[in-house]
Amino acid sequence: MSAAEAGRGRLARLVPAVDWLAHYRRDWLRGDVVAALTTWALVVPQSIAYAQIADLPPQAGLFATFAGLLGYALLGSSRQLIVSPTSSTAAITAALVAPVAAGDVARFGALAAMLAILVGLVLALLGLLHMGFVSRFISAGVQAGFMFGLGLTIIVGQVPKLLGVSGGEGSFFPQLGHLLTSLDEVNGWTAAIGLGSVAVLLAAKRAAPTLPAALAVVVAGIAVVALFGLAGHGVEVIGRVEGAMPGLVLPGVGWSDLVALLPGAMAIAVIGYAESATVAESLADEHGYTVRPDRELIAIGGANVLAGLFQGFITGGGASQSAANDRAGARTQLVSLLVSGLTVLTAVALLPLFRDLPQAVLGAIVIGAVVGFLNVPALRRIARLRRDSFVMALLALAGVLVFGVLGGLLLAVVISILVLLDRQSRPGSTVRTEPGLLVFRLDAPMLFLNAKLVRDRVRELLAAAPEPVRIVLLDLRFTHELDVEDINVLAALHAELAQRGVALWLGNVRAAVHERLRLGGLAAAVGEDRLYRTLADAAPDVRAALDA
User: Fold this and answer.
1) 310 in the same domain as 239
2) Which of 112, 160, 372, 432 is deepest in the core (most CB within 10 A)?
3) Are residues 88 and 141 in the same domain?
4) Domain count of the chain?
5) What is the pLDDT averaged over residues 179-185?
6) What is d(CA 85, CA 514) in angstroms, rounded to the nearest whole number?
7) Across residues 257-270, what is the average pLDDT?
8) Mean pLDDT, rounded, of the chain
9) 332 and 435 share one domain
């Protein structure tokens, strides 16, 4: 291999785009260009709508889209994933930034941008530490419940735009109560535009999912308002918006603001990445390639850092955007690069054309996007498979509705931690007995959470044994490491068994486990010759000891 090839290989490991660009095939171009135009037509209206959810100007949505697409295209390993603002990242941005901004509109944008940078740095750090497994940290049930509650909260916040009534504040129930008491304010023209747009979007999603229905309702809404002068009849529009060029800016926020935003950024990093990773992995499975979790953490982290530096807000792998991109024939991340460029063109030259865009259309676009969050079949499946997981899903759902997006987000993380700890503390076990022998295996890694469970279970089995047991053989096949609590419990169990005339032997002892046993003095106490690499290695000695 030449020095140039070696250098390119190292660069490709850092920036995967170098590899696919070097091997790009001409016959992929048509599919990528068509997919880029389709995705642009979907992403631009959504980005403007999601900026509204985040309480930010339209430019922020377009800047976040430009930067998110660019960052992921250069660093990501998925060929079809579209990283841009999503309804969930927008709602979470608003929920986290509002308390810190304390009503200061001028600070809101800087705080939202810094939040994106913090999320990106947390994700990148997790990737550098090879912690890609965090994509599976949030259980499927908890995530389904959280997304369902988030979807309801977003929808109830957008319905006032559809009807032309004033919006409420707070979590789901206060907003719902305000909406129900404001129905006498409904503007007929606004309701016709908003509800009609929702109907078109939902019908198009079912009948013609590849068509850019969002762009169609945007164009139609602008045309109707302009032709009939509906802005003068109570139909609220975006208003005059100047074109703007994205530029690199480090948000000016204080240390106290960073401290206030960091806990939320860490929670978003876990939940947001889990959502993005699920989309990326499903697309990779469908097309027969592999995404690299650690690389994905770095890529989505880089996309968020860029989004923050370009005055945007949090981005993630959007399910609807990525699915549309895939259906349109995308082959590589060239699509993201093209859409990123088209988004800049939109921000600079086309944004003023959105002046007469009705807020009702933006609300309809948001509702059309988040209806998929209300995944009743998924909840039914969870209830059928595991009742406890279904209860956790309902708790996460209720948490969002009662405590708001931020409270629900933190509750979802706490529930996932508790579920994980509970299941690790009470794993199943496998037992085999024969006269004089008890073979016990914990069907999970031995941890400080479950070490005493091993001791207690062995005690119970010895007490219930029909014949005296002479040897207890612990099978450690699922244990790759031991902590201090594990060694202490094993040492105490060894001493207790010795007093009863029962020998403790250990099987499937890995090298790292053997080293901890040696350092803890337990290897010498049990006997080096009674620590076996496999159960098959132990079998002759067991037979000989029992026959003696």
Assistant:
1) yes
2) 112
3) yes
4) 2
5) 90
6) 49
7) 87
8) 87
9) no
Residue 144 has pLDDT above 60, yes or no: yes
* Domain enclosing residue 277, as ranges: 28-392
Length of the chain: 548
Pick from 47, 83, 127, 77: nearest CA to 303: 83
- pLDDT (tens digit per residue) in 278-337: 778 877 877 888 888 888 899 999 999 999 999 999 999 877 788 778 877 888 999 999
501 torsion bin: left (phi>0), alpha (psi -120 to 50), beta (else): left
Asked if residue 489 is part of any domain, the answer here is yes
* Residues 452 and 376 grouped into a single domain: no
> Quick check: is 502 in a domain?
yes
Residue 517 within any structural domain of the chain: yes
| 38 and 173 belong to one structural domain | yes
Asked whether the beta carbons of 376 and 393 are under 8 A apart, the reply is no
Identity of the amino acid at 209: P
Q: Give φ, ψ of 239 to 5 degrees.
A: 90, -175
242 inside domain: yes
- DSSP assignment string, 117-178: HHHHHHHHHHHHTT-GGGGGTS-HHHHHHHHHHHHHHHHHHHHHHHHT-----SSHHHHHHH
457 and 388 co-located in one domain: no
d(CA 445, CA 458): 16
